[in-house]
Amino acid sequence: MSQSLPDGSPAPDSNNPDSNNPESVSDIRKYAVEAFGTFVLVFVGVGVAVFAGNSVGNFGVAFAFGTTLLVLIYTLRPISGCHVNPAVTLGHYLLGRIPTITAVGYWIAQVVGGLVAGLVIFAIANSLPSYNRGTNGLAANGWGEHSPSAVIGPLGDVLQGGYGIGAAMVVEIVLTALFVFIFLAAMDRIAIPALSGVVVGATFALVYLFSIPIDYGAANPARSIAVAFYQDGAFLQLWLFILFPLIGGVIGAFVYRAVFQRTELIAL
Description:
single chain, two-stranded antiparallel sheet, 2% strand, Glycerol uptake facilitator protein, globular, 268 residues, mainly alpha
């Protein structure tokens, strides 16, 4: 019978000397991989939104986020579990699958990776003469006048606000809880490992397809932090896109534990 590791991934084959063993990987290497993975996720996903959003539409942006995560899972999972999302790391931590020091290291790495990606995207966007940091931004999350559904006048002024703060709160809690639950379930030892990346990537794409018109899609605090500094007013709303996805991550971990009848204690 196949075994699994604490992060839910299959245990390495003892008869295969080339099999990766995440438990033997140093924490520094795991942190580096989480930073790199988060950089790639933000750079590609947000990059598509900023540079090609008008061409590919919401579906194209959601597809970019989902397929990027899919690819990352198949390449980085053997090393760090490929969380690339503080809410996912929180779910693993609450289930006792990673120690406190590792969880904190993952969170720092994810935020740093996202910030570097945001800086690179901004540098590219800023090279276009017509780019305006205050109005164009970098697909930052927001509600009200910063919601993608807000009606903008010809002079750049907001004629009508978009979805409100309540909608953003509900969306971030529910969709992040759903995503974290499916992430944990897809990585579970009774799941089919070969399909885990497809399941998680497709779920993330659907999460963004649903939420982009409301708050530009988050469900990942590192993604939100990465670009909040490049659009007027976005930083003041950042707290919501940190707090509520983390609440969703807690709920997702509880639901996973209840559904899969795991014996791990919730570390609260």
